[in-house]
Amino acid sequence: MAAPLLEIKDLVTVFHTSDGRLPAVDGVSLSIERGQTLGLVGESGCGKSVTAMSTLRLVSSPGRIESGSIMFTTEGESIDLVTTPEKQLRKVRGGRIGMIFQEPMTSLNPVFTIGNQIAEAVQLHRKVSRSEARSRALEMLHLVRLADPEQRLDAYPHQLSGGMRQRVMIAIALACEPDLIIADEPTTALDVTIQAQILELLDDLRSRLGTAILLITHDLGVVAETCDDVAVMYAGRIVEQASAVELFSRPLHPYTIGLLQARPNVDARDSGPLATIPGMVPPPQDFPSGCRFHPRCSHAREPQCNVEPPSLREVSPGHFVRCHFAEEINS
Amino acid sequence: MSEQNPQTDPPLLQVKGLETHFPIRKGLLRRQVGSVKAVDGVTFDIPRGKTLGLVGESGCGKTTVGRSLLRLVEPTGGEVLFDNHAVRKENARSLRSLRRRMQIVFQDPYGSLNPRMKIRSILEEGLILHRLGEGSARLEQMEQALERTGLSPAVLERYPHEFSGGQRQRIAIARALVLKPEFLVLDEPVSALDVSIQAQVINLLKELKQELGLTYLFISHDLSVVEYLADNVAVMYLGQIVESAEAGQLCQQPLHPYTLALFSAVPSVEVKNRRQRIVLAGDVPSPSRPPAGCRFHPRCPLAETVCREVEPPQVDLAGHRFHCHVASRELERCGGDAAKTSVVMQAAITAATSDSTEPHSAVSQRMSLDHQ
Q1: Distances from the Cα of A276 to the Cαs of A312, B305, B372, in angstroms?
Q2: Out of B197, B262, B268, whose CB is closest to A280?
Q3: Interface pTM (ipTM) of the complex?
Q4: Closest by Cβ to B261, choosing from A193, A258, A269
Q5: What CA–CA distance (Å, rounded) separates A162 from A166?
Q6: CB B200 within 8 A of CB A43
Q7: Beta strand ranges found along chain B (DSSP E)
Q8: Contact B279 A224 (CB under 8 A)
């Protein structure tokens, strides 16, 4: 079996602050195959964005990757993104791995035209002339189905709507035909009808170009509609991981179940109040002992849950869960 | 308090043809060259003790509606009746006493609480302004409001930065409740919160409504939250309401193509039957130059010639109101059966968006449906 496109093993990313050593990401392992979409879900502060940033070694001080490996395999060649020299890493960023951020407003440079910004990405990674880069930029705008691409090439970001800016971000990410796109909340700032457009576009590009996607989001619905596999994060750790079909039809971790039940819908209207998860996500300086979810878990039992950190166990083929009593709760 | 006869009791809030236009000025003399028609002829009622959910995408004017009701922005036309008081005609003094009875909770709990004020001052400000209570009575009112929102009185001596997003939103709700209002405008109160916290605040709002008999205008872009919380739902597009009905009716039998698209765009966790998603082309046009005819026609997969030219009149089917030429024609053909019409519209849009080469029309869809 060939190595997966991206394999993260036991990643630990810590922030050294006045509050001490804060493990924002604490032993995360993930792998993505070529052409697959992996959804990484969780609430704010669970470490999902730090995981994404660590993958490209973009975590800025005081954060740093303390241990773990991130193997990235293309064309039969594997490199560890944690240890690879900065110079080589720069070729990977934007070249082999594209990135789309949440805020299309702030991630584009307001003083350059969008044609300029796409061409810049091309010229950084390919030996092409300026006019070739420009025609590549135009081609990309066609690919992401931006209306009137010829005119938009010379437009500035402020002249575009949020959805159009996000299309431009996708065009930049795709300009060098990456093997992997890391999309950090790519549709969170957008309206639902525009979100539907962008999700459809990403899915279409994935099936046509074979680009793998690491999709980071807080929205379980987005994951259910677009991803092949899902990993749920809580307090710096993955608590459950399975294929999307399996996870949504048979969620096992109390946190995943809680998140799914907390979603309001019209069917739940007459059946009393929404199920809630009491309390809130703890900040890294207050991570509880044992299972990090136990203070909020209705199934928590002493002395196991508050003392013994559960491991990520495979309870059925391909379905991993970090809970002592997963089978019992769900039987 | 909430048990009143709808037949004899006028609605707490009546809005008729509300217009809020913002002038666009240009040049040295700042002459008005046009206007942004943020709200352009909006009509609705909210009976006492009920919740109206106002949904729409950014820029559709839903927030401006909420603010216009309280005259936080000055409406330019139409009528707002709050408990038979014409809000637009009130002078500053009588408006203030009305505003005690109608309060607002804003979307961003980080921006809506002054970081330099203690929670005590934040809550007390309204009481001072309205000359309500004194000394210990005031303190008691504040403690009561905090308790109602699930916070301990100890928070009075703390500053906003010490609280999480969910707690801040509770404080903002307590600030509104301390004045004992009858009507609350809730402008995206849970949009900035995480899912698990969102559910807590939604439950709180529902509880408060039942216990205090409050009336809500719940503004949100999130259909699932609105469906859950509202009694009636109105869908806004480009400054106008395109469809409104009782919540269950609207969710099960939407008739307007925009409502249909909006519903299908909401991501669902049902992986097994991934629905056919209706993907609308293009963006919402600018409200300074709304399209002629039906405002939705440039994005509507079913648009016909008449849609480009004539503004669709309102059709009222026992409280289910909508503005759409195609839907009203189909409704007539289905003999006034909303359920059947909704299915026909859904099928027509799905066909029109999924395969643009095939000849399609609502009519042919209806025919094939009849054959089954």
Answers
A1: 24, 49, 44
A2: B197
A3: 0.79
A4: A193
A5: 6
A6: no
A7: 13-26, 31-46, 51-55, 77-82, 85-86, 102-105, 183-187, 215-220, 232-237, 240-246, 315-317, 320-322
A8: no
For tokens 């269950």, the residue is B248
Q: Is A239 helix (H, G, I), strand (E, B) or coil?
A: strand
> Measured between alpha carbons, how far is A283 from A45 in angstroms, rounded to an integer?
7
Cα–Cα distance, B306 to B16 (Å, whole number): 27
Q: Is the peptide bond before A303 cis (omega within 30 degrees of 0)?
A: yes
Q: Are B51 and B229 in contact (CB under 8 A)?
A: yes
Angle, CA of B242, B246 and B250, to the nearest 5°: 55
pLDDT, one tens digit for every residue, chain A (331 residues): 578 999 999 999 999 988 889 999 999 999 999 999 999 999 888 899 999 999 999 988 889 999 999 999 988 889 999 999 999 999 899 889 999 987 767 889 999 999 999 999 999 888 899 999 999 999 989 888 888 888 889 999 988 888 888 889 999 998 888 999 999 988 887 788 888 888 888 888 888 888 999 999 988 989 998 999 999 999 999 999 999 999 999 999 999 999 998 888 766 666 678 888 888 888 888 899 999 999 999 999 888 899 999 999 999 999 999 999 998 888 7
Q: Which residues on A lie below 8 Å from B265 (Cβ)?
A: 192-193, 195-196
How far apart CA A95 and CA A176 sit, in angstroms, is 5
Q: How far is the C-alpha of B3 from the C-alpha of A26, rounded, in Å?
A: 54
- Say how far apart CA A196 and CA A190 lie, in whole Å: 9
Best residue of A44, A204, A225, A277 to probe chain B, by most B CBs closer than 10 Å: A225
Domains of chain A, start order: 6-227 (3.40.50.300), 251-263+274-330 (no CATH)
- Set of chain A residues whose Cβ sits within 8 Å of the Cβ of B264: 196
* A182 vs A166: CA distance, rounded Å: 14
CB atoms within 10 A of CB A162: 19
Residue A63 tokens read as 């954060």
Contact B269 A273 (CB under 8 A): no
Interface of B with A (CB under 8 A): 57-58, 164, 166, 194-200, 202-203, 206-207, 221, 223-225, 227-229, 247-248, 251, 261-262, 264-272, 274, 277-284
* A308 part of contact set with chain B, CB < 8 Å: no
- Which residues neighbour B65 within 8 Å (Cβ) at sequence distance 6 or greater? B15, B18, B20, B39, B42, B54, B217, B219, B236
Q: Are B120 and B201 in contact (CB under 8 A)?
A: no
**Closest listed residue to residue B177, CA positions, set B104, B115, B283, B286:** B104
Residue B190, phi then psi, degrees to nearest 5: -115, 5
The beta-carbon neighbor of A245 closest among B261, B271, B284 is B271
pTM to 2 decimal places? 0.84
